[in-house]
Design a protein that fits this description.
Elements: H1 2-19, H2 29-52, H3 57-78, H4 86-119, E1 124-134, E2 149-153, H5 158-170, E3 174-179, H6 181-188, E4 200-203, H7 204-213, H8 217-220, E5 221-232, E6 247-254, E7 266-275, E8 280-286, E9 291-293, E10 300-302, H9 311-322, E11 328-333, H10 334-343, E12 347-351, E13 355-356, E14 363-364, E15 367-371, H11 373-381, H12 390-409, H13 413-416, H14 418-428, E16 430-431, H15 435-447, E17 453-458, E18 461-468, E19 472-481, H16 483-497
């Protein structure tokens, strides 16, 4: 009896000991899953934030402390002994809310990383090559060119050779050299304006230049077939400690809408010299028609034409000419400008004149004009309304860029237009700056939201007519550099970079 009573009396004691054990995780599987999910999303968020590295260190420390405190709080609330309590309900609400918020944060961080990655993918550039025939001729599509002879230009371009090989993979064709680009034009429409039912193979850029130079050529011809060839760009970046050392960025604005990956003429040519320590920027503009020696071909041409051989050719041509190092480039087009300006809510641009665009509906007043993307584009492209023509257009391009820089660096535009800006920079801007370089610049600006001092200058010259490498012996309008203007620009750039 005594033994039985002793055992019975000790049963509650054992049960009591079991209940008093500390539980590492909540007692129900659902709460355990919730807690694990919360901890995983916290770790993921902090990992992505660290990899992206765009926030100041102090901000990262504060976020880390807050997340650790929340993790401890949620753990204590969910791990309480009773199955249903107010504390557990609060823990469930906090953890569920934070999972949603951190999930959204991870989404934005991933999109930011993806946008920076796209923007830095400078190796991917393409050039289109067209099979062109008469609009009223017998060739309508790629099937019609099978077994035919196509006239080509004499070229030392490896890209043109690649394009010919690619076309032969798609159609059984033979090639016959006709001479330069203008000789190709004469294969279809000769000097007596007589049409010939033939085929020519020409780069998209040279086709556009012939269409601009020869009246009705575009109307009288058709593109029968197009092949696209990837251009491999060598790494020409000269990397520096981007937040501690001055550097030069070449801004190349190509004359196209849509995607940024196609090579095209460089119509906007600007060197942006940046002093990150003193927060100074110098914008040096170069006329598109400046007559310079192409880096790779050792022949005279317009600076704008260098763009059809890739942005690397433009950068190295300007380096040779001015005797400076260009550390990075940024490549944009018409669509880029429109989208960037719209993403930041428009820009304020000061005009010294009242004028109307010669090619659009827009009018601009003397003084400050608040412009959306399209209005800013036509403001920057206008030249016919001014006596100085292209020189005033260059100044207007600088005014628009200055307005963009002032808006980005001196306001909350980056935060309020964050999603739109990400969409724009990922798809419409191309650069050889690394993701870490871009992140460092963003981080530096977030640490000090103050504005920058922006100075502008432009290289001038005298207009004349001359032959060019890209268009052969045909006389085109070019600008001969004014040497004193060149030296002045060199001096200003070297002063800021400490050279």
């Amino acid at each position: 009896m005594r033994s039985d009573n002793y055992q019975k009396n000790n049963i509650p004691a054992k049960a009591g000991k079991t209940k008093s054990k500390i539980k590492i995780l909540p007692g129900t599987p659902g709460l355990t899953v919730l807690l694990v999910a919360f901890l995983l999303i916290e770790v993921t968020f902090m990992s992505m934030l660290t990899i992206l590295n765009i926030l100041p260190t102090l901000y990262n420390i504060i976020i880390l402390i807050v997340l650790i405190a929340l993790a401890v709080l949620v753990f204590k609330l969910l791990a309480c002994r009773k199955e249903v309590t107010k504390q557990r309900k609060v823990g469930v609400i906090i953890s569920a809310l934070m999972i949603v918020l951190l999930g959204i944060g991870c989404f934005y961080l991933f999109n930011t990383y993806s946008a920076f990655s796209k923007m830095s993918d400078e190796d991917k550039q393409y050039e289109d090559f067209h099979v062109v025939a008469l609009k009223d001729g017998s060739y309508k599509n790629v099937k019609d060119i099978d077994g035919k002879t196509i006239f080509t230009n004499v070229s030392t371009s490896a890209t043109y050779d690649k394009a010919q090989e690619k076309l032969k993979e798609e159609a059984d064709v033979k090639y016959k050299e006709a001479g330069g680009y203008m000789q190709l034009k004469s294969v279809l429409i000769d000097e007596k304006n007589k049409e010939h039912d033939e085929l020519i193979f020409i780069s998209g850029n040279n086709y556009e230049m012939i269409c601009e130079d020869v009246e009705d050529f575009e109307k009288r011809t058709r593109i029968v077939h197009t092949v696209s060839v990837e251009i491999e760009n060598k790494d020409i970046a000269k990397r520096v400690g981007i937040t501690q050392e001055p550097f030069n960025i070449y801004i190349s604005g190509i004359d196209t809408f849509g995607g940024i990956s196609k090579v095209s003429r460089s119509d906007v040519n600007m060197i942006m010299t940046v002093d990150p320590v003193d927060k100074k920027i110098l914008l040096t503009s170069i006329p598109r028609d400046m007559y310079v020696d192409l880096h790779s071909y050792k022949a005279k041409d317009k600076l704008t034409h260098s763009g059809i051989y890739g942005v690397g050719e433009t950068v190295e041509t300007v380096e040779d000419w001015l005797g400076i190092d260009i550390n990075y480039y940024i490549r944009v087009n018409f669509t880029s400008l429109e989208d960037i300006v719209d993403a930041i809510g428009g820009v304020d641009v000061e005009s010294p004149y009242a004028f109307k665009s010669s090619v659009s509906k827009y009018s601009y007043s003397e003084g400050i004009n608040h412009l959306d993307g399209e209005a800013a584009l036509f403001f920057a492209r206008e030249r016919k309304s001014f006596e100085e023509g292209d020189q005033e257009r260059i100044k207007n391009q600088q005014r628009v860029l200055k307005g963009i820089l002032n808006k980005i660096t001196g306001s909350t535009a980056i935060l309020t237009g964050y999603t739109k800006i990400l969409d724009t920079v990922g798809d419409q801007i191309q650069t050889n700056m690394s993701q870490s370089d871009i992140g460092s610049l963003v981080k530096m600006q977030l640490e000090d939201i103050g504005g920058w001092s922006i100075e502008t200058t432009a290289i001038k010259g005298t207009g004349t007519n001359a032959s060019t490498y890209s268009m052969g012996s045909r006389q085109l309008y070019v600008v001969i550099p004014d040497e004193s203007s060149v030296k002045d620009a060199q001096m200003k750039i070297n002063e800021m970079t400490g050279k």
